[in-house]
């Protein structure tokens, strides 16, 4: 986890430097000034890199060394349970349909976007409450 955090700190710093250089170059040489799509996109990449790095750094402080942090570790050290997943869940399908309709709605018509939001909310609620058996269940 620490190695991954270092990689994302480096990526965040790299994209920040690239964003500053890109903003300077487009401001200097473009007739309309700073380019309005690329500059914020590269800044967003830097922000995402820093957010992931911060999350991994905080997680590595709270938990013991991961198998990937051991210099003499083997690949088989990461084997075992990786999480609890429902193999026959329909919730990801509803979320994907909702996301697809939202993207289609932005391109084709805003009324389609509303249906996408409904499908996405239904899918997310179904996914979150999938293993819930009620407030007072034992």
TrEMBL record:
Keyword check for Cell membrane: yes
InterPro entries registered for this protein in UniProt: Cyt_c_oxidase_su4_actinobac
Localization (cell): Cell membrane
Transmembrane segments: 7-25, 37-59, 112-129
GO cellular component terms attached to this protein's record: plasma membrane
Top EC group: translocase
Superkingdom, taxonomy of origin: Bacteria
UniProt function note: Part of cytochrome c oxidase, its function is unknown.
Family, similarity comment: Belongs to the cytochrome c oxidase bacterial subunit CtaF family.
Protein name as it appears in the record: cytochrome-c oxidase
